[in-house]
Amino acid sequence: MVAQPKKSSLTAEEYLAVERKARFKSEFYKGEMFAMAGADKAHNLIVSNVLRVLGNQLLERDCNLYPSDMRVKVRQLDKYTYPDISVTCGEEIFEDDQVDTLLNPVLIIEVLSDSTEAYDRGMKFEHYQHIGALSEYLLIAQNSCRVEQYMRQHNKKWTYQEFHSLDDVVALKAIGCVLALKEIYFKTAKGGSFK
Known about the structure:
By secondary structure, this protein is of the alpha+beta class. Helix content is 21%, strand content 33%. It starts with a strand and ends in an 11-residue tail after the last helix.
């Protein structure tokens, strides 16, 4: 989803007061709100597929899977954002008793579009790295068969892997799950349907 500037010079508290009553989602960074645009069919199918596949694998585990309605805060930057998918395992930490702003996702997944790709792989990923609990970041292309996986190492460096075939399977170590590309792209132009 693409963000457009909405209003500037707000505090985080003012942002949350507005955001919690708003009909549309907005991100917040450096005193500015950025209205979030809607997503197209391919984006929504990919997100739905990933939620279904991971949700089934996490059903009996102490993990929770959240779609893009769960706000995530990067505390060190006072930034609020809405990842396409975020996952927690173990104790969850929220900003306050509203339980609508997550502080400790272990996995974040973003679906790339032409308008968000540079931001998702650049500044947004740089910001996400400030979340101490985050150990994996997954980027899923919606216009091609491509999944990129970043995994945090003990030395604060990130390793990188790419997957390009519908036969590939991504092992998500942070949550002990696997994602097959044929399931990610199911019913999209890139994935067709199961035979």
